[in-house]
Design brief:
Radius of gyration: 20 Å
Structural class: mainly alpha
Number of strands: 0
Helix content: over 70%
Number of domains: 3
Largest sheet: none
Length: 295
């Protein structure tokens, strides 16, 4: 098992090294993407039950996507639905393609055995990504998102974020695929929520930018490690990252809370903001240090 994953890691490193040597030229990028896709197809074909599981998850996400579009058509009319459609569909297609692309990472953490199904934990993560795709689709289409709708999706996202980790640990299905998917879903959800709060004049622009830096700094560090130095990076969260995520979630919850709770949120706003800003400054640094040590 370990030999298999080592071979895959070496294949990725070889691809990145070749891309760097070709100075990131268009032909180099084409060969990089083509060989990566061929590897993904080979992995899927070598594990037919996993491939079928991906297809089932994709069908479920497709049905949920159609249900969301139908609901929007009824509640917001055809004009808003048509504006939502391109961005929403693009994000959903991207997330399902991304899942297929990374099926080879669906390996049990302890044994490094490829799991036969995508699993409940990863499905919960991709449900959170679906909610993020809906919000991003609204932003791309220029549709205003009321705070109550953003709050509903945020609470669903928090629930799936808690459940996917619990399910993965109890079922012994913790995988690198889950770690990557979890990070991507969180990034997209918090990106969408932050922009919506800025648009709704609830969150100052400078605070929103600082919140996004929590995700952007480790992301840029990961891209630099991949494409400039051809090295894989660690995707696991640090304890500081977990604290920052909790503080940020609580702060967003206070901002999205109904006005009827203003007598409580008024006193929580400033203390939570201070704690969140401090942890948002510490978390990316801790993540980069963890990546350097692991490499």
């Amino acid at each position: 098992m370990r030999q298999g994953i080592n071979n895959e890691n070496q294949f990725v490193v070889d691809l990145l090294t070749t891309l760097r040597e070709e100075k990131f030229s268009p032909p180099g990028w084409w060969r990089f993407l083509a060989r990566s896709w061929d590897m993904s197809r080979k992995t899927a074909n070598n594990h037919p039950t996993l491939k079928r599981s991906w297809l089932v998850v994709t069908i479920v996400m497709g049905m949920l996507t159609l249900s969301i579009l139908a609901t929007c058509f009824v509640l917001e009319g055809s004009s808003s639905t048509l504006r939502l459609l391109p961005g929403f569909l693009f994000c959903v297609l991207w997330q399902q393609s991304d899942l297929y692309w990374h099926l080879g990472l669906n390996r049990q953490a302890k044994t490094e055995r490829v799991l036969p199904t995508v699993g409940i934990a990863n499905t919960l993560t991709w449900l959170r990504a679906l909610g993020a795709s809906f919000l991003l689709g609204r932003l791309i289409g220029g549709i205003t998102t009321p705070s109550w709708l953003a709050l509903t999706i945020f609470l669903c996202g928090v629930a799936t974020d808690i459940l996917d980790g619990q399910v993965a640990r109890r079922s012994g299905t913790q995988t690198k695929l889950g770690q990557i998917g979890d990070g991507e879903a969180d990034f997209c959800l918090y990106l969408a929520l932050t922009i919506i709060l800025i648009q709704n004049v609830v969150l100052p622009l400078w605070i929103g930018l600082l919140m996004l830096l929590r995700f952007l700094i480790p992301l840029l560090a990961a891209f630099s490690s991949y494409f400039l130095f051809a090295r894989t990076v660690r995707f696991g969260s640090t304890i500081w990252g977990k604290y920052a995520g909790l503080a940020q979630s609580l702060y967003l919850l206070v901002l999205l809370a109904p006005t009827q709770l203003a007598f409580i949120t008024h006193y929580l706003n400033l203390p939570l903001l201070v704690v969140t800003l401090i942890l948002l400054a510490v978390a990316p640094v801790a993540q980069i240090i963890a990546n350097v040590r692991s490499s």
